[in-house]
Write a structure and sequence with these properties.
By secondary structure, the chain is α/β, with parallel strands linked by helices. It is 30% helix and 12% strand. Helix 3 packs across helix 4, helix 3 packs parallel to helix 5 and helix 5 packs across helix 7. It is globular. Bound molecules: zinc ion (ZN) (2 copies).
Length: 264
């Protein structure tokens, strides 16, 4: 059966500093999920676990464990499975911003490999060409695969992301990703059970003629056995529906329900 657009595993609320929208409440997110027949809705505000990992990058300083947990308890629903997660960070030193002692606080942990607009994630003086950025992306996917993480509840966020190289051409970066190394990294992540994200916001913003470059990375991931979850990555209510606009991506990748990442 064709992959159903019935999950949103990466979605922000007003608690994320880049949202701050009083209308973007967990209640509004869950209501939307109910109205559209989702099976699962995850709330993932930005997090750097200052308690376990001192020295948060400045932007994250106020987005700590206590901050994201102020969303709790999440609204209950008898229609949708509502789960609590976070979108953490991976800094330039390769540290992921959730201390292992806190893995248990989350049902799902989204790790973005490529918040490359942030200086504490990418040294822009070093990774300053599309090829170097492409290689850095693969290095970081390899590094995640080597970490001691609860992969059954880990998602790899937006491998295609407009923030990957704002001073360059994001699609050229995807074209330049080394096939052999990328496939090996994705095979490792597939074997360990991590989910790979189809970020609706990224796909909806992709011009049609650039779609093959973005899809290239996911085609290879599928061939290496990866399973996929969906993400609105919404920061405002109007963006929640982007999930429902990526049927063309599902068709292009030929995804079925067997390709779906599912939380235990
Ligand atoms: Zn992100
Ligand atoms: Zn996000």
């Amino acid at each position: 059966m064709k992959y159903r657009l019935d999950n949103d595993m990466h979605c922000h609320t007003h608690l994320s500093l880049c949202s701050g929208d009083p209308a973007q409440t967990a209640e509004a997110v869950v209501r939307f999920a109910e109205e559209h027949g989702y099976a699962v809705q995850c709330i993932t505000d930005h997090l750097w676990d200052e308690e376990g990992l001192p020295g948060a990058p400045e932007w994250y300083a106020r987005q700590d464990i206590a901050h994201v947990r102020s969303d709790l308890p999440l609204p209950r629903s008898d229609k949708v499975r509502v789960v609590f997660g976070c979108e953490t960070e991976m800094n330039a030193q390769g540290v992921v911003g959730v201390h292992p002692s806190h893995f248990g606080l989350f049902d799902f942990i989204v790790i973005p490999p490529n918040h490359f607009h942030m200086e504490h994630v990418r040294d822009k003086a070093v990774y300053n060409t599309e090829k170097k950025v492409a290689d850095y992306l693969v290095e970081r996917l390899e590094a995640i695969g080597r970490m001691d993480l609860p992969f059954y509840k880990v998602g790899i966020a937006h491998i295609n992301c407009s923030l990957i190289m704002s001073e360059g051409d994001q699609f050229r970066v995807y074209d330049l990703v080394d096939e052999g190394r990328y496939r090996a990294a994705m095979r490792t992540l597939a074997d360990k059970g991590a989910g790979i994200e189809l970020n609706a916001a990224s796909f909806v913003g992709t011009p049609k003629e650039k779609m093959p470059s973005a899809l290239r990375l996911f085609r290879m991931a599928k061939e290496e056995g990866c399973r996929f979850y969906l993400a609105s990555d919404a920061h405002h209510p109007a963006a929640l529906g982007n999930i429902l606009r990526i049927g063309d991506v599902i068709d292009a990748l030929g995804l079925t329900e067997d390709d779906k990442f599912r939380l235990a």
